[in-house]
Each structure stands twice: as C-alpha cells, then as structure tokens.
Amino acid sequence: MLEIGKIAPDFILPDQDGVTHTLSEYRGKKVVLYFYPKDNTPGCSKQACGFAELYPHFIEKGAVVIGVSKDSVSSHKKFEEKFQLPFTLLSDTELKCIKDYDVWQEKNMYGKKTMGVVRTTYLIDENGVIINAMGKVKATDNPGQMLELI
Predict the structure, then answer these.
(1) Cα separation, 19 vs 90, whole angstroms
(2) Which residues carry out catalysis?
(3) How far apart are CA 66 and CA 53, in angstroms?
(4) Smallest Cα–Cα separation from 126: which of 94, 100, 150?
(5) What letter would DSSP give residue 2?
(6) What per-residue confidence (pLDDT) applies to 111?
(7) Model pLDDT, residue 107
(8) Measured between alpha carbons, how far is 105 from 21 in angstroms, rounded to an integer?
(9) Contacts of 125 (CB under 8 A, 6+ apart)
(10) Could you write out the DSSP letters of every residue in 33-60?
(11) What average pLDDT values come out for the chain (150 residues) when binned by 10 residues?
(12) How many CA atoms lie within 13 A of 131 on its CB side?
C-alpha cells in the first residue's frame, strides 16, 4: 500500500464509455479511488452498490468516486448498466495503475497462491496527496467508512 502524505501516482485510463481519464483532472476535488478484483462478483457488486447509494453524499462533500479493476471497458459498461452506477469505472487491463498503487499482490485462495487485486481504497485530497489508505477492506463497510473520512 502507498504511504499517506505522498503524491498519488497519476494515471491515464479509459472509463466504461471509453473516455480517457487522468487523476490530475480531478485536482480541486477529493477523490475516493477504490480498487476491486472483478465486475459482477458478489463482493464487488455490494461495494459498488454501496458507493452508488451514498454517491449524492460524496458529491455534496466535493468528492468523486472512481472504481478501478483490470476488467475491460465493455465489462465495466455492463456492470454500470446492471447496477445503475453513477460514478466512473476505470479499466486497467495492463495493470499499470493497479501496480503503481501497490494493490496487485499475492493472494491465498483455498490454499492456492495466485496474484490478484487486493480490495484497497485511497482517499486523495484536492492537491493529489494521499490522505488515507485502507487495505483489505470489507466490501459492504467500505463506502460508509470512506464517507465518514471526508
């Protein structure tokens, strides 16, 4: 996990509509940048729906929510439509941003070691500085926890 107080790494990634985004375009706003393993899985769906439910409160507080996974743009589009997600989902199929944020790690699933995205959420301030980092978060609790931090 990246250190609190450090400048968050910038990125250039496409969203669910194929539109390219950078972290620097969000300067002046707080950014909840959350990394999740896979679209349309139970935990990731609960986390995304939790952020969607609380999204108006994030906006009221001058924050944006951005989800990142290694899924494709088309997978993100289906995920967005299925759950009517009001926020940006970024596709990092090459794992560059995922690795830059140190969330591509060894995982132990039923005794088998694999590499994958560890569910992690960063809170980045208006100047691009990491002000909070939560690793191995619980999907259902994470949206509310992040809202409280803002």
Answers:
(1) 9
(2) 44
(3) 14
(4) 150
(5) P
(6) 84
(7) 85
(8) 24
(9) 30, 131
(10) EEE-S-TTSHHHHHHHHHHHHHHHHHHH
(11) 95 97 96 97 95 97 97 97 97 97 89 91 98 94 94
(12) 14
**What letter does residue 1 receive in the DSSP assignment?**
-
Coil, strand or helix: which one is 12?
A: strand
Q: How many CB atoms lie within 10 A of CB 88?
A: 19
How far is Cα 81 from Cα 25, in angstroms, rounded to an integer?
Answer: 25
Contact status, residue 16 vs residue 54, Cβ threshold 8 Å: no
Q: Using CA atoms, how far apart are residues 110 and 89, in angstroms rounded to an integer?
A: 29
Q: Give the containing element (helix H, strand E) for 81.
A: helix 73-83
Residue 55, pLDDT score: 97
Token representation of residue 22: 């950078």
